[in-house]
Amino acid sequence: MNSAMKRGKLGVLVGGGPAPGINGVIAAATIAGINEGFEVIGFRDGFKWLAQGDAQHYTKLTIDDVKSIHLRGGSILGTARTNPAKSETSLHNVLDALHKLGVTALVTIGGDDTAFSASCVYRKAAGAIRVAHVPKTIDNDLPLPGSTPTFGFETARHNGVFIVRNLIEDARTTSRWYIIISMGRAAGHLALGIGKAAAAAITIIPEEFRGKPVTAEEVADLMIGSIIKRQADGSNYGVAVLAEGLIESMGEKGLVTAVPGGQLDRYGKVTRDDHGHLRLGEIEFGRLMKDLVTSRLEQLGLKMTLIDKDLGYELRCADPIPFDGEYTRDLGYGAVKFIRSPAAGNYGAIISFIDGKLVPLPFEKMLDPKTGRFTVRKVNVDGEAYECATEYMIRLEKIDFEDQAQLAKLAATVSLSPEKFRARFGYLVGLA
Questions:
Q1: Where a domain ends, among 316, 335, 353?
Q2: Are residues 310 and 402 in the same domain?
Q3: pTM of this prediction?
Q4: Identified catalytic residue from 139, 141, 291, 308
Q5: Are residues 420 and 297 in the same domain?
Q6: 330 occurs within a structural domain
């Protein structure tokens, strides 16, 4: 590695929600840092204490401390969602604490919000602290080049698939439907990755609506269409996977309109975190959708046992699979290599690998010039990978309405005439 910079203390911290592989990054960055002559310290709970000007909540990290943690889930440093850029005072407190401790380099591990916070720290430090951010989220929604995943995604999908496969078998055995709410605040990568690999009957993600308003009623009808189509073919069970990002697409008003009497508090509190995001985990979206689908099925004369289940917390602290175990070692090593390079004196960066080569992505090139925030990588619903996913789902399609025998079969399942069935569900496939 390049020896151009003055050695000092290398700080490591974790922000946002957990993801499999965090400890792998901590271990790799610690070992690489020590080998390069740094004293490495790990800050507890992300920016939480630093934002208060507290320089005491840290621990010195040694190779013995981290040599066996790379395949363990969780984070030995904890994590928090504190946003130090929320005020000038908080940001000043962070810089003051880092300067007092003699920190000359900082490795942050986190998602979109932590990346933004890291960029603010770099800018405020004005060159005094070099910053490398390692992108982490099971949502896989950071704008990395091509199909490069964020670490933790592959492990979360891997474990999620086994859970959904078990639920599919349970659904078959007990003649019921499961509604699975998969984590994924702004994009449907995890929901689609799990649903596609596990062969769920239907997976619904925000991107498929292509920017048009999303309503709970339409999402419910998409599931009902799948239930009817399965029922018409003699199958009275199934699993639907919904991305939790549908909540933000619907918005608070959209959720309220879906609840009888507008009493959304029946399904939890609508609150926001330090970054202004809806706290999705506070809303029982699965129960809301289960009640809505059940009610609309009953209006059609269908009785069906539906079970809702959130899927996400079970995945975030899983032991990383070998892919993430190897990947996080690259990322931790790459973060320190970047920090030691002359380039780190000119810009802070998100650490990325393309074809096995370290490619630091400057903060200023990754920020949306309009919002000052990082753009979100969405599922490409125009590509063949998504086309393949939908091809193997059970959904109402235009052909179902064009084939008169099939239309009559579907309509008979809910005791409707073909004309009334078309009027009720035709909008799902673009029919007036």
A1: 316
A2: no
A3: 0.92
A4: 139
A5: no
A6: yes
